[in-house]
Amino acid sequence: MEEKIIKHVELLMERYTMLETCKEDIIKAYALLEASYTEGYKLLVCGNGGSASDSEHIVGELMKEFKLKRNVYAAQADAMKAIDPEMGATLAEHLQGALPAITLTAHSSLTTAFMNDSKPVLVFAQQVNGYGRPGDCFLGISTSGNSSNVIYAAITAKARGLKVIGLTGAKENKLEKLADVCIHVPETETFKIQELHLPVYHALCMMLEDHFFGV
Predict the structure, then answer these.
(1) Where are the domains of the chain?
(2) What string of DSSP letters covers 72-135?
(3) Mean pLDDT of the region 54-62
(4) How many CB atoms are located within 10 Å of the residue 150 CB?
(5) 30/181 Cα distance (integer angstroms)
(6) Residue 144 pLDDT > 80, yes or no?
(7) CA-to-CA distance for 71 and 189, rounded, in angstroms?
(8) Domain 3-63+98-213 CATH (choose: 3.40.50.10490, 3.30.420.40, 3.30.10.20, 3.90.180.10)
(9) Is 183 helix (H, G, I), strand (E, B) or coil?
(10) Residue 62: in which H helix or E strand, if any?
């Protein structure tokens, strides 16, 4: 792994020493995400409550600049300018490079229609069924690791050939049994688990950004 990527992990361990217990799983999760993005695939992410907010937070860090400048590629800039010189120049100057990611916690018309017409607990699984392609990654965030809607989505993801990553608390759980990698942060109370989830996914986002957009 690149030295600049390892530095992000080392800084995370320095700031949150208790995360040493899941260091190797953080690195493994990063490796899955890097491999998927390298091949042109995407990330699907979901969770409930605070974890739903985390899902949207992750997408926000991946789909636009986080810490680094992400200029669009020269070929794309030239193509936009060729279509319309003035507007193309504006696009070339202000568009930012993105790592494609979709939160399954939004899309209110779709989710409420599905929950009204079908089985509500399958609302994330339905979206995985529609969006997911072999080679994509699925990230399920659940403080307990046992949230039924996240578990159904993970099963669907695995069946469709996605790599499954879990982000949970310390206790043994159902999601870890389905995941290719499960990051267990070393807490058991919901709010304490959530407090550690944020630095973990921030580190993953910074690592990905540095790899794909860093100098």
Answers:
(1) 3-63+98-213, 71-97
(2) PPHHHHHHHHHH-HHHHHHHHHH-B----EEETT--HHHHHHHHHHS-GGGHHHHHHHHH--TT
(3) 98
(4) 29
(5) 10
(6) yes
(7) 41
(8) 3.40.50.10490
(9) strand
(10) helix 50-62
Q: Which of 56, 59, 49 is nearest to 142 (CA)?
A: 49
State the amino acid at position 157 in one-letter form.
A
Confidence band for 115, pLDDT divided at 50, 70 and 90? very high
Q: How confident is the model at residue 54 (pLDDT cuts 50, 70, 90)?
A: very high
**Count, residues in the chain:** 215
Helix, strand, coil % in the chain, rounded to nearest 5: 60, 10, 30
User: Which run of H or of E encompasses 150?
Assistant: helix 148-159
Placement of tokens 């494609």 in the chain:
100
pLDDT digits (tens, 9 = 90+) for 63-112: 999 999 999 999 999 999 999 999 999 999 999 999 999 999 999 999 99
pLDDT at 205: 98
